[in-house]
Amino acid sequence: MFDKILIANRGEIACRVIKTARRMGIKTVAVYSDADVRALHVEMADEAVHIGPAAAAQSYLVADKIIEACKQTGGEAVHPGYGFLSENAGFAHALKKAGLTFIGPNPRAIEAMGDKIESKKFANAAKVTTVPGYLGEIGDPAEAVKIADEIGYPVMIKASAGGGGKGMRIALGSDEVAEGFQLAKSEAKSSFGDDRVFIEKFIVNPRHIEIQVLGDKHGNVIYLGERECSIQRRNQKVIEEAPSPLLDEKTRKAMGEQAVALAKAVDYDTAGTVEFVAGQDKSFYFLEMNTRLQVEHPVTELITGIDLVEQMIRVAAGEKLAIKQKDVKLNGWAVESRIYAEDPYRSFMPSTGRLVRYSPPAEVSGDGLSIRNDTGVYEGGEIPIFYDPMIAKLCTHAPDRSAAIDHMADALDRFYIDGIQHNVPFLAAIMSNERWRSGELSTSFIDDEFPDGFTGGGAAGEVSDTLVTVAAVLDHTENERKRLISGQMGGKPVNFNAERTVRLGDEWFDVTMDIAGSNGGSISLKADGSKATQTIEHDWAPGQPVWSGTIDGKPANVQVRRIMNGYKLAHRGVEVEAHVYTRREADLARLMPVKIPPDTSRQLLCPMPGLVVSLAVEAGQAVKVGDTLCVVEAMKMENVLRAERDGTVSVIHAEPGDSLAVDAVIMEFEQARE
Q1: Which residues, 6 or more positions from 671, have their beta carbon under 8 angstroms from its beta carbon?
Q2: pLDDT for 80-97, tens place per residue?
Q3: pTM of the model
Q4: 157, 195, 229, 364, 672 from 236: Cα distances, Å
Q5: pLDDT at 235 over 50
Q6: Per annotation, catalytic residue among 288, 301, 336, 638
Q7: Domains along the sequence of the chain with CATH
Q8: Is 288 marked active-site?
Q9: CA within 13 Å, CB half, 72
Q10: Is 73 in contact with 47 (CB distance < 8 Å)?
């Protein structure tokens, strides 16, 4: 077994590998760029080596720097994690030449399956059914349009060396192919150092299901069940689960055996994933093979009890798999939510900055309900602009799917982040979505269920009742503390009846509280003429970020942020401002004028912190709805900003190469005359 390994990656996956290595008694070496000097993986590792500037192309993607760092520290092997150099056959060859072990597949397997074009050619030759498409290299946009026309729309333009949703575009018609081709090539070059792309038929209403395989260097290969990864946005997975609610045992076995056969054909000898696109009728087609550890591997670990990182290390050291196919048992259900630094209210634009508060739910493991949080950040740390925007992977495990989803909803309500924008409200809203809960999924789920983007929605029903109740209890608890501090009540618990009015967003609710005890205890509350009286138990104290308690015996968690004269509450994907008044205060508050936000309709604002890649217009130019105005890059993704109405560009405030803050004015317009 190895004494010391180097992790050629950053963020949560580097931390994940370090945890297993530490448990196995193996020392670890981290590498870091200028942007990651204070990163968590650097703190966790036994040693750390600086490898260059923030840009990945000058640090994490430079094989020579990784190899030199390994030699310098006496490392014997390198774990690549995912992304960066994880599926780079040249890197695997270079490690071998340097006398170092690659904790990943043999170079032949990477070359055969890691390249998306070559993998499809190989699968076709092996009689594996694949999605129709063109597997050759495509020279220019005109050729891309011709090929797409022949395949038939819609088509998917994909980076050959891609993954993680980078370098992918869907084209619904010929007019979208040329732009999608250029954007896919540019993203592929930036993310993987390889700008080759291919085109294939896009299957309408498909499901994305993948099989986890595990092999050794002695010819043994097994499969560890499947993961459903159909909840995606812009081809980037958002929520994964294991097993899939679609598959039965017969289909699972058929997919697993096909995945194993494909892996054996290339002598696959580590953890890897064979991805399939599946129809609602359980038909499936080989899509690609990822010759690395997947982002979503924790859900497989939770339902099988197998540590995939440990198995990768043992296999790389030459050990035989101790697990046989008959030993693999699927236990319960696991769900993973990817927590991203992005603003769901602004079309999921990336968000960067300091994590002023970072308080995830406590990790719990056991045979019942479990919570696991794989992360690479900490409170006070920075989310840089240069890398993938993932903050954490929150996983729950329970005896069945419904319980796992409920457990995830509760965990998301307790996942408190401040300082940057994040997608926790969006994830929480999905957990309450009836289609998601029914298991009727497809890769178009998010587009179908949120056609106008995510707005958070208004509080209604049980969610509204919970927020009104908690707002009233928060106000009472803070007021009680003020009375005790001032000494007005002599430091004794207070018993009285309080009538209050809660303004939740634009709605008003009258509540009556029968308060007994101090700082918690039991509170009876009756809202808005309802016949039912609720009993609330809690131990929340002012300053705590999450209110946790029970309402009529049912647990509830609500995130609390103090605002002027009130609170901003978050629960089950709903974020709303709440203000609590006396009856007289409420009468006066209803008379206050509503503040109207400033008109920015004649300005193009930068929707995220990012780098201006290019400008497509100049001052004085007339534009139509949908015209490209500029391209802004953030976190390895290029975002095209388009005109939302007809007009004329009056002034441009930014130039290519400028780094802009969120809401910075890029250009201004004169509105088109009627």
Answers
A1: 601, 602, 645, 646, 647
A2: 999 999 999 999 999 999
A3: 0.83
A4: 14, 19, 9, 28, 37
A5: yes
A6: 288
A7: 4-103 (3.40.50.20), 132-201 (3.30.1490.20), 340-457 (3.30.470.20), 467-589 (3.30.700.30), 603-671 (2.40.50.100)
A8: yes
A9: 14
A10: yes
